[in-house]
Amino acid sequence: MIQLSRYVKVYPSEQSSEQQLLFSTKKASKALVSPETLQSIKQDILSPEDETLLSRLGMIVEDREEEKREVLSLFDRMNGTNPELNITVVLNLDCNFACIYCYEGSMKGSLYMTEETADRLIEFIKGHFQDHKKSLVVDFYGGEPLLSLGLIKSISRRLKSYAKSRGASYRFTLVTNGSLFKRKVARELKRLGLTNVQITLDGPAENHNKYRPFKSGAESFDILIKNIQETWDLVKIGIGGNFDEKSYKEFFQLLDDLEWAGLTPDKISSIKFAPIVNRPEGDISPVDYMAGCMSSSEPWLIEAEAFLRGEILRRGFNTPKAGPVYCAVENTSCYVVNYDGVIYKCPGFIGKEGFEVGDLRTGIRDYRVSYKLGAWKNGHCADCEYLPMCFGGCRYMTYIKDGNINALDCKKDYFDASLETLVKQDIKYGSHPM
Ligand code: SF4
Ligand code: SF4
């Protein structure tokens, strides 16, 4: 019997008062339907054409219990067949910037990955690149990864040739403050597999220079803009930015500055601004660890996110669409290797006692309990329409709040307050419902 999927939200349509907007949290698909069509679903009397279309979009299913089981086993299935191995490598905890919100503080310094640790890293990667793997992706982090340029090159040279010998592909990304990303560097790294670079700009020049100066106190904004102008045609450049309650209202001016500098939407692969997250005392996580997978439910944040996202999309820039986000902790082909060879599951937990999952010398140990894998496999979450976009939220956010990850980072209030706006923004600026 046909039924509405339990992972569908029904919103009023802005296009027509006669229709309703369906959004699948499972497939991030959208459909405009009439109240009669919704009624037909309830009565199981849909036309064959509507049934085929709505079922393809994930709006209707034959068996809601079976669908629930499928969503609950999603990670098990993905982990069994994932053709990609993804390793985040924290090359150092050093930096040539002195961002005012950086909590590395006194922990920062000459903490660099050595050649010997890099050798072990290569062996670790080879050991985890099982027969079915087709793609090897390394994300280089810091500190500032470009302070370890020599190591990026030597690791990449070796991994590129290893992947080739296995009939697989190798590529890498950089999360950098952007100050050392000159054209010569970009050209050289591109040859070795660099595809994407993430650079942080904290709003317009005045704000950015206050939040992200060089260690010397010198301003960094103009240098970063120049570097992006020099390199956008070589690799995909994504721009991130960290805002707080005071600064976010000025962030849209950065978008004007980018266009004024000739960095139009065709030259920037995506823009996403995120809140500066308070770090617990003693934290030594890399400052730019956020991979766009965190969120929070504070009311000002919900307003800030909708406002900034609207400004980004209105100007024609790309930003991630509302849809499923998968926590790397549940992905068995994802590891974070710190400069000293200790391995974690998420960059946010670097240096946190109890969240190490092994090291390059001894390998990976069982982390199912320490990272609370599958904690969202409970009756409450299984019945929640947001499950495919949440899976218990972000463990790191829970850690910041509670000092442990015993509770889930429930995003229900956040989704209730913001998802409709985000979906409608996506429709208004480009992704139209069927
Ligand atoms: S715990 Fe949070 S920050 Fe870490 S990988 Fe998961 S969603 Fe991302
Ligand atoms: S944590 Fe909250 S929002 Fe997430 S699936 Fe569970 S009930 Fe839903």
Structure commentary:
The protein has 434 residues and is of the alpha/beta class. It has two domains: 72 residues, no CATH class; 240 residues, Alpha-Beta Barrel (TIM Barrel), CATH 3.20.20. The protein is 35% helix and 17% strand. It contains 15 helices and 15 strands. The strands form three sheets. Strands 11-10-9-8-7-6-12-13-14-15 form a ten-stranded mixed beta sheet. The protein has a three-stranded antiparallel beta sheet with strand order 2-3-4. Strands 1-5 form a two-stranded antiparallel ribbon. A hairpin with a 3-residue loop joins strand 14 and strand 15. It is globular. The two termini are 23 Å apart. The model has no long low-confidence stretch (mean pLDDT 92). Bound molecules: iron/sulfur cluster (2 copies). One iron/sulfur cluster binds next to helix 14.
Q: What order do the helices and strands come in, and which of them pair?
A:
Layout: E1 3-4, E2 8-12, E3 20-24, E4 30-33, H1 35-43, H2 48-56, E5 60-61, H3 64-72, H4 74-81, E6 84-90, H5 115-128, E7 135-141, H6 149-165, E8 169-176, H7 183-191, E9 194-200, H8 205-211, H9 221-231, E10 236-243, H10 252-260, E11 270-275, H11 299-314, E12 334-337, E13 342-344, E14 358-359, E15 363-364, H12 379-382, H13 387-390, H14 395-402, H15 412-428
Parallel strand pairs: 6-7, 6-12, 7-8, 8-9, 9-10, 10-11
Antiparallel strand pairs: 1-5, 2-3, 3-4, 12-13, 13-14, 14-15
Helix pairs in contact: 5-6, 11-15
Bound molecules: iron/sulfur cluster (2 copies).
Compose a concise summary of this entry:
The chain is α/β, with parallel strands linked by helices.
